[in-house]
Amino acid sequence: MRSNIPMMWFYLSLLPPAIWACVNTIDKIVVGKYIDRPIVYLIFTGLATLIPVSLLPLWCNFDKISVSLILLSIATGSIYIFYTWFFFRSLQISDAPVVANLLLLVPVISLFMGTILFHERFHIHTYGGILLVIGGVLGTSFEKREGKNRTKNWSLTLTPAFVLMFISAILTSIDYTLEKYILMQTNEITLFYWNRVGILIATGCILLIPKSPRKDFIRTLRFIPHIIPISLINEILDMTAAFILISAYYSGPLSLVTAIISIQPLFVLIFINIVNKIRPNTVPTSGDKKYFLIRFACIIIAVVGIYLISLTG
Question: How far apart are CA 167 and CA 109, in angstroms?
């Protein structure tokens, strides 16, 4: 059911990036300190979808949709597994804020997809807001480097995770576009359910393929049992954010919703600084006070962009 509250999609769009920032911070700690192979952690998060797949049919009524829509919805879950693996692998080799910043590729790609596929057109200030959001968060990717003469300067770093995150961003944009298309023909809970079924199927396929990480998965269960509650809590948070995002896409434009959730890197930066203040060096990162202040200035730019987007009626 679509909400009667004006701009509800805008307010809903602000919640997933904050939740996912918490999830990403936990992900970085887990794949950086406890699990060597990101695919093993992906199996844990994938199997956690047994919870909604088992319980939702008991509580919810789903729309009757065509087989093709069911298959498309399942496909969105399978695509999720692929782009999440690239994301976890990137977290393993780079800092969480830097990896999250590379998610900025998603709103850029989605903007073109929304314009081409859904004929989305907006006022000039809306496009200006999107550019400010992207530019502001992109600014957080600047880091200090030492030049040949030992002079310190600020330069945009092309991290080793760039190629992985570029692939992840393309898959994420395709996934979001498919979800928007499906939501034009059914409701949020129906898509959410079949999306989770797709994640579960993809996870099962990983366990069945030759030379799968089954042994590593079982070994992790035996020697690091506390990963189970961590992954469950993390997946519950992730599912909550995913459902809220689907609800935002249900009533809002693809391009604008995706642009708003691109503020996720800013929340990641804030979360990591809070965690490291409470327990120093819990989450590996780089930079000094000046580095943080420059990133904070970029946050202000992105907030201005969000305000301009909010003016869209």
Answer: 12
Q: Within a 10 A sphere around the Cβ of 68, how many other Cβ atoms?
A: 8
Query: Three-state DSSP class for 68?
Result: helix
Sign of CA dihedral 284, 285, 289, 294: negative
Say what the pTM is.
0.77
The secondary structure of 89-131 as a DSSP string is HHHHHS-HHHHHHGGGHHHHHHHHHHHHHH-----HHHHHHHH
Of residues 149 and 16, the one with the higher pLDDT is 16
Instruction: Give the three-class secondary structure for 143.
Output: strand
Maximal CA-CA distance, the chain: 67
Tokens of 287: 């930079």
Structure tokens at 217: 């998965």
If DSSP codes are grouped into helix, strand and coil, which group holds residue 173? helix
Region class of 281: left (phi > 0), else alpha (psi between -120 and 50), else beta: left
> What would the pLDDT profile of 141-182 be if each residue is shown by its tens digit?
555 555 544 445 555 555 667 788 889 989 999 999 999 999
Q: How far is Cα 225 from Cα 227, in angstroms, rounded to an integer? A: 5
Q: Which of 177, 170, 187, 22 is nearest to 102 (CA)?
A: 170
Separation of CA 183 from chain center: 19
pLDDT, averaged across the chain: 81
Report pLDDT digits (tens) over 182-196. Answer: 999 999 999 999 999
Question: How many other β-carbons are positioned within 10 Å of the β-carbon of residue 76?
Answer: 24
Is beta strand 152-156 parallel, antiparallel or unpaired with respect to 142-146? antiparallel
CA distance 216 to 219: 5
Rg, C-alpha atoms of the chain: 20
Distance from the first to the final alpha carbon of the chain: 20
Cα 241 to Cα 257: distance, rounded to the nearest angstrom:
13
